[in-house]
Amino acid sequence: MIKTAAAICISISLLCYGLAQAYTLRADTSVPNAAIELWFRAPGAGFENGTPGIARLAATTIAASRSQGALSLADIIKGVGGRLSIDVYPDIASISALVPADDAPQVLGAMTRAYFSPLVSADGLKAAQRDLAVAIAQQQFNSDGMLHDLLLAQLFASGPQHYPVLPVSIAPLVKLGVPEVTAFASRAFRAQNAVVSLAGNLSHAVMRAAFAGRIGDPIDPPLDSTLAAAAASTTAVGYDPGVGLAWPGPAIRDTRATTALDFIADYLFRGESGVVARQVDDLTPDVYLNGQFITLHNPGAMLVTISGKGYDSVRQSVLGELLRLQQPLDAAVFSAARNAFEYHILSDTQTILSQADNAGWYTVEGNPDYAPGGPGGGYLQAAESLDPQFVAEVARKYLSTPTVVELVPRSK
Question: Is the pTM value of this prediction over 0.90?
Answer without folding.
Answer: yes
